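Quiz preparation item.
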């Protein structure tokens, strides 16, 4: 019996060795990658310039979400949709992903003429080595600045010009982008809140009517929102609310 056990153990050991050894050999033969990050001496000044350009590009890419939010129509759209959802009282319906996605694609739609001008006047000439990097950046900012100037109120623009202690500008070219961008954001916030106020009015009237009816019937323990929400939803559907709101938001930029 002991001999049988010894033979079984020997066979098991040999089988394990035959199975494990090829994997050990293959792993030993496979080269492992190694990443090294360091600062060395550059022989050519052009290497430093290329490195600085890469760092600047990575910085711009990290700021891309903020640029998309603050220098486009995204702010007004996202805030207006958020006010709409709160006015309907649907809590998390539609979900945040749907609302942000809709605002994002509407931003692409609204900003398409601006991005076409940027592509034709800045990106294509720069890639074709017709203009320098600084000239491409200046050409790319022109249509974006024109868009922001159309949507910015003069009062907000004058506020930031005075806070920057700049001389009274004669033309829009005299206003730097660092002054224009915060003025544009403040104007967008006010416009979005005005749109939200007008979105609230019809649904607020429904809430008041439902609350008055329940109070007159003595049903004070029943939450009015449970009764008013279906009426608000059916009103929104019958009015084709999404069509009206999306159309009005897009036209507010086109006519701005």
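Solution:
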């Amino acid at each position: 019996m002991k001999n049988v056990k010894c033979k079984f153990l020997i066979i098991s050991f040999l089988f394990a060795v035959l199975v494990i050894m090829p994997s050990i050999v293959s792993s030993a033969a496979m080269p492992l990658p190694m990443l090294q990050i360091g600062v060395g001496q550059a022989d050519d000044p052009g290497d430093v310039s290329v490195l600085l350009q890469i760092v600047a590009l990575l910085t711009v890419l990290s700021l891309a979400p903020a640029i998309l939010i603050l220098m486009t129509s995204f702010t007004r759209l996202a805030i207006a949709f958020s006010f709409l959802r709160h006015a309907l009282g649907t809590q998390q319906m539609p979900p945040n992903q749907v609302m942000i996605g809709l605002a994002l694609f509407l931003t692409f739609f609204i900003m398409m003429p601006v991005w076409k001008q940027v592509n034709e006047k800045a990106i294509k000439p720069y890639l074709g080595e017709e203009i320098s990097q600084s000239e491409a950046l200046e050409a790319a900012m022109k249509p974006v600045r024109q868009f922001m100037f159309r949507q910015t109120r003069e009062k907000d623009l004058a506020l930031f010009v005075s806070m920057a202690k700049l001389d009274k500008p004669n033309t829009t070219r005299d206003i730097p982008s660092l002054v224009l961008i915060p003025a544009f954001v403040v104007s967008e916030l006010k416009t979005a809140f005005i749109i939200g106020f007008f979105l609230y009015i019809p649904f607020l009237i429904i809430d008041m009517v439902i609350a008055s009816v329940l109070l007159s019937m003595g049903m004070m323990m029943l939450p009015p929102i449970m009764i008013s929400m279906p009426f608000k939803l059916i009103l929104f559907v019958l009015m084709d609310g999404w069509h009206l709101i999306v159309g009005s938001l897009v036209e507010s930029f086109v006519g701005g």
